[in-house]
Automatic annotation (TrEMBL):
<dbReference type="Pfam" id="PF00651">
    <property type="entry name" value="BTB"/>
</dbReference>
<feature type="domain" description="BTB">
    <location>
        <begin position="25"/>
        <end position="81"/>
    </location>
</feature>
<dbReference type="InterPro" id="IPR000210">
    <property type="entry name" value="BTB/POZ_dom"/>
</dbReference>
<protein>
    <recommendedName>
        <fullName>BTB domain-containing protein</fullName>
    </recommendedName>
</protein>
<dbReference type="InterPro" id="IPR011333">
    <property type="entry name" value="SKP1/BTB/POZ_sf"/>
</dbReference>
Length: 88
């Protein structure tokens, strides 16, 4: 059906430029980050909703109650150079 809600929602796309702006603002909001990467002594605040969808390893570390990282809200990344976790 041409007038159905399913058809209408499929045609409604959010422009990438707008999404980029929204995600940029989200990344700058430290109070909603929820997780920190620690590398070379520096803490990088990240958003779990974003990084956990990009990596199953980070997702398990941040959300599994049996992992220390999930309780601390921080993941140590000393095996990487500083630019690496900044680009995750």
């Amino acid at each position: 059906m041409a007038g159905s809600k399913e058809h209408q929602s499929a045609d409604m796309r959010i422009p990438e430029a707008y999404l980029s702006i929204v995600l940029g603002k989200l990344m700058e909001a430290p109070k909603s980050s929820g997780l920190k990467f620690v590398c070379e002594g520096q803490e990088i605040k990240v958003h779990k909703a974003i990084v956990c969808t990009q990596s199953s390893v980070i997702d398990k570390s941040a959300n599994n109650k049996f992992f220390v990282e999930a309780h601390k809200g921080r993941i140590e990344m000393d095996n990487f150079d500083l630019p690496t976790p900044r680009h995750i």
